[in-house]
Design brief:
Chain A: One of its GO terms (molecular function) is rRNA (adenine-N6-)-methyltransferase activity. The complex is a heterodimer of chains A (215) and B (125). Chain A is of the alpha/beta class. Chain A has a single domain, classed as 3-Layer(aba) Sandwich (Rossmann fold), CATH 3.40.50.150. Chain B has a single domain, classed as N-terminal domain of TfIIb. In chain B, strands 1-2-3-4 form a 4-stranded antiparallel sheet. In chain B, strand 2 and strand 3 form a beta hairpin. Chain B is globular. The two termini of chain B are 25 Å apart. The chains are: A alpha/beta (215), B alpha+beta (125).
Chain lengths: 215, 125
């Protein structure tokens, strides 16, 4: 099954709803799922506004069960490399790609931050929804971003809490890169949670596009 | 593990290892899966690769037939060649086996098509 970029957003989201998520999310890796509507809107924006998915060589960094990589494959990516440290997450990714008959996704179990690859500027496009970097992992989101930029000859697309926007702006400047928020998204909660006391789970998220400075 | 992936894997993060490239492939199960052919994409990917490493890797798992040992000029215009490259890069997959670091001999298992490149803390430089 390979769709083209003209696939409607709703169709893409429908497919991504079928993607299985984490069975037992592991706190140590800060595993949390990228909701299907966020993945769909992000990927659709990346393709329709920047043409950075179709026919591209793509890295899904810290892929988890692989929703971004799978969505990229559905939108006509040339080939997707998906990396994650967690074996269980890659197992689910494996089953997802089998079920959806996607044959252009290849996975590596490795620590994205410990370079086990010769991938300097190797990928056209890098996609990630990095760990937020709480408590024991402060700054891990920035390390992911920095490594992502190193791997990319084009752009890195990354999801971050909107509350970190000014911090990321500062970092991008420090690193001598260009970047901007290209979409503001929201983690939708199911209606059943509307009156739940944890309303703060409704999180505003930015989709960043970061790239090397053009001369 | 597709050979496009093998082409970029190294074990240079291992303590005492300088280049850790290329990793030798020991395959106990290789399969071929059909992937849509996109000549423009393949032509653009080839210059990023170490072609000799790809050839040796393909040969080591019995899939080098018809694949030239060296790249010819204007390869991107040769559709027949691009089809062969496409097959070797994207369609041939090592499902089970292991990779071996050329310097330390450390083995990395490949299971269900996924190479496990994780190192424990004591192994990292």
């Amino acid at each position: 099954m390979k769709m083209t970029a003209i696939m409607k957003l709703k169709v893409l989201q429908g497919h991504l709803q079928e993607v299985n998520g984490f069975e037992k999310p592991k706190i140590v890796y800060e595993q949390y799922e990228t909701p299907s509507h966020i993945a769909a809107v992000a990927l659709y924006t990346i393709q329709t506004q920047y043409g950075d998915i179709e026919d591209k060589l793509i890295l899904d960094a810290g892929c988890g069960p692989g929703i971004l990589g799978i969505g990229a494959s559905l939108l006509g990516a040339g080939c997707v490399t998906a990396v994650d440290v967690d074996h269980d997450a890659l197992d689910i990714l494996h089953d997802n790609t089998k079920e959806m008959e996607l044959t252009n996704i290849d996975a590596i179990q490795c620590d994205f931050l410990t370079q086990t690859c010769r991938w300097d500027k190797y990928f056209d496009t890098v996609l990630m929804n990095p760990p937020f970097g709480t408590k024991n992992n402060v700054g891990i989101d920035m390390k992911f971003l920095q490594m992502g930029v190193q791997c990319s000859s084009g752009a890195v697309y990354s999801l971050h809490k909107s509350s970190t926007r000014s911090h990321i702006e500062k970092k991008i400047k420090e690193w001598g890169l260009n970047g901007s928020v290209i979409a503001e998204l929201r983690y939708d909660l199911p209606a059943t949670y509307k009156f739940h006391r944890k309303q703060s789970l409704d999180i505003a998220v930015d989709l960043w596009r970061i790239h090397h400075t053009r001369k | 593990m597709k050979l496009i992936t093998h082409n970029m894997l190294t074990s240079k993060c291992l303590k005492g290892v300088v280049t850790g490239y290329p990793l030798a492939i020991n395959a106990t199960y290789v399969k071929v899966t059909e992937v849509g052919f996109d000549p423009e994409f393949i032509g653009r990917v080839i210059p990023k690769l170490d072609w000799e490493v790809l050839w040796v890797a393909a040969d080591s798992i019995g899939h080098s037939e018809g694949l030239p040992k060296t790249l010819e000029p204007k390869f991107e215009e040769n559709e027949e060649f691009l089809k062969k490259a496409h097959r070797v890069l994207l369609e041939v997959e090592v499902e089970e086996g292991h990779l071996t670091c050329p310097e330390s001999g450390r083995q990395f298992p490949i299971s269900k098509g996924i190479p496990n490149m994780l190192l424990n803390e004591a192994e990292v430089q």
